[in-house]
């Protein structure tokens, strides 16, 4: 289940919450590929020898596992390179600490230096723009503009004001442009003059002084000399000001009046400062409905606080965006038309609408109509969907259909205000909200981009107006693309060797030659150094949390940080076995992690109880060889194994890392293919891990809680008990951006919502169920659980219990809440699976 944080009421940008996504990238310096991956073919279930788990020095306790996680170590976050590629910056933040501490560490140093508060504005900044020569760097710090000379290191503060600057770029002639709100300024490097080149007002243009038009007004001017004189003087003064503005070079640019019905949701300036592209959204659109509130029963004043909350997909009617091009030199506005987008008016949901109409005894007649569009909203990138050529007046935009079925990369004709489709990615299910990086290749008419068109995200280059050329191919996923400083290579991350292991590669753009830059078995993320010679890795392995490493290209890997606590490192953690479970439902193989009891026996009369953990987010990968973002669950699974359980967590269909078909298997049918995979997981454990299939429980949070419901409601004999944490019970009540991808919208596709929402299937509950949720959950509302509880009461189901957490959001914060939650889960399994 993904968490969403809307950063603007008008731009639909979203960020996954730390717990619900729980996707940690990482690798390990010494990890080797485990021998047993159990990759089976032909859906044949066989006995596979599994190695004995290590023996713990002392049993784990829930108090230890759910304690303040700082005992594991306070790890580096947000790491990036210094400008000279000789050191690394990062932050560390203790659990629930109000602010973070920032550090700098040289690549050849064994420890980091903490930065003082008065040093932060001088520290090399992560988010910055370079001039064409690469000699100067502009960045924003606390809303003010700074410029650093990369040759001598001198830093100059350009602005010192309380109104924050929102964006900055170097122009092709070396001038600096920046914008505040809807105002764009240009700092001339030769004179230091600050020129306002655009003042954009989302209002109607003020009316000029008009001559009298009615009989009474004309009579007044004719008979009253004073009135006529005042009118004529005002008219003359207005004309004078207009003439002066046209010829006086000291005047700023004319104001743009774009009407009072929209707001600017995105803005970008061309390399020479002549053009500005705007994305406009209806000003009446809001991210929340009027009645959407979240009651906080423990308000600071002793009263119930009504906290605003996001709209539900059933009510969120996003109107799309329209694009406007402003010529700041000629003061000409062009409304960008969408007819150049291939398929812009296709009825892509015709089959869905026909099926839903037929279910109601009606007919549906398909008609073409222009579709709503918006700039592409990738949930992981930091780049803009608007890409200006670095030196020429050429523009690419990445646009998506609001119905989620198409993504276009289009070139913009700046003279005509029209679009030409350079690449169309269509998906009958939904276009992925990841894998959308793209950008120009300098000194050329070509650009690179990612696309899932083959079924897996791969890297392509394309010259404008020509065919695309694939740089990577195969049944693996490519992401996180970086253009090398010399523009000869594209660096990227991929899981080419195994779906659960990631490495960094580079491809020579001209020849297509690929080099593997890291040799790792785990997961990782990377940052390429400014000089292009080294990689900064944020990496982990199965039982080693993320640390920072330096990998010189062609050189030897070295570990930079060591923040994992001795207490954690010295414990004999069991590394889960990553296995490939054969599918009996046409899915091929389903990867899963397996934890085994101490003293495990593959065969024997005494069979083991088992638990299956269901990860959150839906589209998330957890059965990989890196350290799991679900670190508490990792420790809990070690505890369960010590108590005699076999534990499995599966990357059921819909999970990340396995390509487009795996991702879209849940389209219009959430909770069915995933439960089929869980069934195969139970069968695998019965055949390979000596598990009693009549003693298996399941649990999970967010999407995992939803899946727990669907398993217990629709397959009552599969699990003997289940715990659903912060669970979705009715998809019509979840948010629009996530849900409409998979289920369309309730007004168009009620069949999908009724088929996929647990509350519609609650009558099937037969086994003990524990429901736990936070009252302050602004992602999956507390109301979700309230409605399901009332439904179960009315169905007279006696086998469920609930626990509420009054101060907790979606990702719990308080260790006491975590402890209470997992005590209840553990008690449920002990009572129901060890009878």
From TrEMBL:
Keywords annotated in UniProt: Signal
Residue ranges annotated for the Peptidase S9 prolyl oligopeptidase catalytic domain, each copy included: 638-834
Report which superkingdom the organism of origin falls in. Answer: Bacteria
Please provide an example of a Pfam family that matches this protein in its UniProt record.
Peptidase_S9
> Record keywords: Signal included?
yes
Q: Where is the signal peptide?
A: 1-33
Keyword Signal in record: yes
Name all Dipeptidylpeptidase IV N-terminal domain ranges.
385-541
Q: What is this protein called?
A: Prolyl oligopeptidase family serine peptidase
């Amino acid at each position: 289940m993904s968490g969403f944080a809307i950063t603007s009421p008008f731009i639909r940008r979203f960020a996954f919450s730390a717990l619900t996504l729980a996707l940690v990238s990482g690798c390990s310096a010494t990890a080797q590929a485990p021998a047993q991956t159990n990759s089976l073919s032909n859906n044949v279930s066989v006995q596979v020898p599994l190695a004995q788990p290590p023996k713990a020095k002392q049993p784990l306790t829930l108090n230890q596992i759910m304690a303040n996680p700082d005992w594991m170590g306070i790890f580096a976050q947000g790491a990036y390179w210094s400008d000279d590629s000789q050191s690394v910056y990062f932050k560390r933040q203790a659990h629930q600490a109000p602010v973070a501490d920032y550090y700098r560490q040289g690549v050849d140093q064994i420890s980091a230096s903490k930065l003082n508060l008065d040093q932060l504005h001088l520290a090399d900044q992560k988010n910055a723009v370079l001039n064409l020569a690469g000699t100067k760097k502009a960045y924003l710090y606390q809303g003010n503009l700074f410029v650093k000379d990369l040759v001598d290191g001198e830093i100059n503060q350009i602005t010192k004001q309380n109104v924050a600057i929102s964006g900055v770029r170097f122009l092709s002639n070396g001038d600096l442009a920046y914008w505040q709100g809807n105002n764009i300024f240009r700092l001339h490097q030769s004179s230091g003059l600050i020129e306002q080149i655009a003042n954009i007002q989302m209002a109607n243009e003020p009316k000029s002084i008009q001559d009298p038009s009615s009989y009474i007004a004309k009579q007044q001017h004719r008979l009253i000399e004073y009135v006529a004189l005042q009118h004529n003087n005002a008219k003359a003064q207005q004309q004078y000001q207009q003439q002066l503005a046209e010829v006086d070079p000291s005047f700023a640019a004319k104001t743009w009046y774009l009407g009072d019905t929209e707001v600017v949701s995105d803005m970008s300036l061309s390399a020479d400062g002549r053009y500005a592209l705007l994305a406009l959204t209806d000003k009446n659109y809001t991210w929340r409905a009027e009645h959407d509130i979240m009651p906080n029963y423990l308000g600071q004043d002793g009263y119930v606080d009504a906290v605003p909350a996001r709209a539900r997909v059933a009510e969120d009617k996003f109107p799309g965006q329209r694009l406007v091009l402003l010529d700041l030199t000629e003061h000409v506005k062009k409304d960008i038309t969408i007819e150049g987008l291939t398929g812009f008016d296709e009825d892509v949901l015709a089959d869905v609408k026909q099926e839903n109409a037929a279910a109601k005894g009606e007919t549906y007649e398909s008609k073409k109509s222009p579709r709503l569009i918006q700039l592409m909203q990738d949930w992981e990138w930091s780049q803009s969907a608007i890409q200006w050529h670095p030196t020429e007046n050429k523009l690419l935009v990445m646009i998506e259909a609001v119905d989620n079925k198409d993504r276009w990369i289009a070139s913009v004709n700046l003279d005509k205000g029209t679009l030409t489709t350079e690449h169309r990615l269509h998906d009958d299910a939904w276009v992925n909200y990841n894998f959308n990086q793209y950008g120009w290749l300098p000194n050329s008419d070509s650009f690179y981009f990612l696309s899932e068109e083959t079924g897996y995200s791969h890297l392509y280059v394309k010259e404008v107006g020509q065919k695309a050329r694939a740089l990577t191919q195969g049944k693996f996923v490519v992401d996180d693309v970086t253009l090398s400083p010399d523009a000869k290579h594209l660096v990227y991350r991929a899981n080419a060797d195994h779906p659960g292991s990631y490495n960094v590669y580079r491809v020579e753009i001209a020849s297509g030659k690929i080099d593997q830059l890291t040799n790792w078995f785990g997961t990782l993320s990377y940052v390429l150094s400014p000089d292009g010679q080294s990689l900064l890795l944020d990496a982990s392995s199965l039982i080693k949390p993320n640390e920072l490493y330096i990998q010189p290209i062609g050189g030897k890997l070295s570990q930079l940080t060591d923040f994992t606590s001795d207490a954690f490192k010295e414990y004999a953690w069991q590394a889960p076995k990553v296995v490939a479970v054969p599918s009996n439902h046409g899915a091929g193989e389903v990867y899963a992690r397996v934890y085994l009891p101490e003293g495990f026996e593959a065969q024997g009369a005494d069979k083991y109880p088992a638990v299956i953990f269901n990860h959150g987010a839906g589209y998330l990968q957890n059965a990989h060889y890196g350290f799991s973002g679900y670190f508490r669950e990792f420790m809990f699974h070690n505890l369960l194994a010590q108590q005699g359980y076999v534990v499995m967590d599966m990357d059921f269909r819909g999970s990340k890392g396995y390509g487009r078909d795996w991702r879209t298997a849940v389209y219009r049918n959430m909770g069915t293919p995933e439960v089929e995979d869980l069934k195969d997981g139970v069968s695998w454990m019965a055949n390979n891990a000596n598990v009693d299939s009549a003693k298996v429980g399941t649990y999970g949070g967010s999407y995992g809680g939803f899946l727990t419901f669907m398993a217990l409601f629709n397959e009552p004999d599969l699990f003997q008990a289940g715990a659903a944490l912060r669970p979705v019970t009715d998809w019509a009540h979840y948010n629009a951006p996530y849900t409409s991808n998979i289920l369309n919208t309730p007004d168009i596709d009620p069949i999908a919502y009724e088929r996929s929402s647990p509350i519609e299937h609650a009558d099937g509950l037969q086994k003990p169920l524990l429901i736990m949720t936070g009252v302050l959950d602004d992602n999956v509302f507390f109301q979700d659980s309230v409605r399901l509880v009332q439904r179960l009461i009315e169905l007279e189901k006696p086998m469920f219990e609930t626990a509420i957490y009054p101060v907790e959001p979606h990702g719990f914060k308080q260790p006491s809440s975590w402890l209470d939650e997992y005590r209840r889960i553990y008690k449920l399994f002990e009572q129901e699976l060890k009878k």
